[in-house]
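Cross-posted from the bioinformatics board.
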Amino acid sequence: MPIPANTSLKSPLVIIMVGLPARGKTYTAQRLQRFLLWRGYQSRVFNVGNTRRAQVGAQVPHNFFDRENAVGLTARRAAAESTLDALLEWCALGGQVAIYDATNTTRSRRNWVKIACEERGLRVLWFEITCADATVIDTNIRASKLSNPDYKGIDPEAAVADFRARIAHYERAYEPLAPEEGSHIRLHDLGQRIELFDIHGYLQGKLVSLAMNLHTVPRPIYLSRHGQSEDNRQHKLGGDSNITNAGKAYAQKLAQWFQDRDKQSIQIWTSTLRRTIQTAVPLSDHAIALKSLDEIHAGICEGMTYEQVREQMPREFQARKEDKLGYRYPQGESYEDVIERLEPIIFELERQREPVLVIAHQAILRALYGYFTNRTRSETPHIEIPLHTLIRITPRAYGYDEERVIMGPEVPQT
Amino acid sequence: MPIPANTSLKSPLVIIMVGLPARGKTYTAQRLQRFLLWRGYQSRVFNVGNTRRAQVGAQVPHNFFDRENAVGLTARRAAAESTLDALLEWCALGGQVAIYDATNTTRSRRNWVKIACEERGLRVLWFEITCADATVIDTNIRASKLSNPDYKGIDPEAAVADFRARIAHYERAYEPLAPEEGSHIRLHDLGQRIELFDIHGYLQGKLVSLAMNLHTVPRPIYLSRHGQSEDNRQHKLGGDSNITNAGKAYAQKLAQWFQDRDKQSIQIWTSTLRRTIQTAVPLSDHAIALKSLDEIHAGICEGMTYEQVREQMPREFQARKEDKLGYRYPQGESYEDVIERLEPIIFELERQREPVLVIAHQAILRALYGYFTNRTRSETPHIEIPLHTLIRITPRAYGYDEERVIMGPEVPQT
């Protein structure tokens, strides 16, 4: 439900990350931002580490982070300040949810950030991440820190040792969040334990749902349109037609592909429309049909061809052309409506640790694909999701892998 | 998204409440059950206190609850056992989510319950409620315990004193949940702080969203259908027609009613269809139009009259008559689909502490009304939501108050 600005976002929200290095703050900040952008909030991450690298260069030794090191302290404070300035300016210019990505491990530092935000009427939400599992921290260091510019060209083991020493400087000063500091979400040990303090808002609730489902276990998400349908062949919008012989051939190829390759149990989700259910038939008799995966509803234009819409409803045709994201078919849906109804599907896809194959429709898959590949909302209605092509996305901690398998048979793309 | 039994409910789930008396366990258990039933899960609360009252009578002195009292201990253990037996039997017969409502304040008691469940392949979720605020506990005692059969006919102050002494017996033995006991949700101080331990599932996530939004601040929820529409007058399904002059007169009366009575700021939510938006016009220019409040979509039957459906699609007409809840219009929606898409609206309505007026449609309001008044799912499609009538529901800790204001003008009900 897109509660508009006057009820859900009276004033911009600043999410302030808290936690020692290598706890997954940047990963989490990016996931929060991706979700917020997808849901249509102006959102941006402001990363102090990046500012510091830009200001004093990347390769600084660990004792730069020692609290006794006055030079380091001054430089780091300067980076924190200019990053915060940029954040505050962005909020003043209409930003809705800013994420301040830094360690913020001392109470005095947090207090300074909080006061700066609150003085400008911004709301503050703390997001703390802790981890007691040394293996996880080690994996984080190796997965993300060694590829960061701070350690470019440095021997990996030396880099790990230096980063551990860097963490130790922070550990000495670390003061975990206290209730009196205000609303917060705290993730322990990769979400094994989550604490929520004074979390009640609409948007905050969504962020908790997201945080509960995030994990970094790699698993592929497969996206496929149904095989060609009768209505595809006639260029008609919507409807509930059967798949053609070419569509059936695609369904067979798809089943064969999974039989040859992906032996592990895979979940199959379809829409409730015939063309997706029929496409799943050769694959499995355990497919789950979900109403929320049904194609964008074209309202009074259902059953018409694009050509007919252009001729008979030139105003509608033009309005959709000008704003394909926000345009709502009379008595039907817009892409924005579709994104909203897909939110529970996104939480479910985030949560799954096993492969899932989603057999759905063009607009639906554009919205899902856009989420997992960080497309902007305005790009979403224009993403290419061809017929008879299997898309495999494997989300990674930073970024994702993508493979497109053109299965055929070749049919006109609609 | 109704993930069917094979993925979301491999085996029945037993939610075991934990907490001292007067912390709101029974209130929370009932709210969980109401939500689960509304979402279509077979759900039931098993309350040990009720069993104990049935077995040994209601009026027992507080020292019945003293752990040194062997008679009391035996009787209470017997009540716990037969309640658990009933729960286990219900699960074996197809129950999906059982809620075991008792204090369960010692680890040995919890361990006994857990083993009994797990031996039968049932999954366990702990739900602990704590409260450090003496005022809240006092309010709880006065609001719910004094009206319970244990204190029927007893002087209120004596009853409060006795109940406090009863709590003290439990406090001496209370061992809060520990992580090694397994997945749990813990609510502190009316949800001010919430801890989630090892909570990852689909259903568990929904229960957290609900728990985050529950509160006991009384505020009215107003439900109203739009004023009579052109299509109402012609008995047509769906569509997006304008309201009639009678509909406009209702809109004026509605606005006047709120001007006369409810001076406080009220939120107004409409659907995106003309007839609800037009009804809100005299009330406010701040109404929020929400797609998820749009009327049940009648698919290929949109624009037809009921009479036409009966004549031209006798099979559809008959199928809907036989299962109005599960029947899905071809290319349209079922009541079950509607309930699913209203879930975020329910969380939002639970969360609001100010009055909200929902101006929507018959099927939508049936689903919302059914939730707040504990109707069964099968009753939902038959609830009477007349035109030109304002319904005011004020949720209470146990139950609700309802008022129906017949505003007029009188029009044929459709």
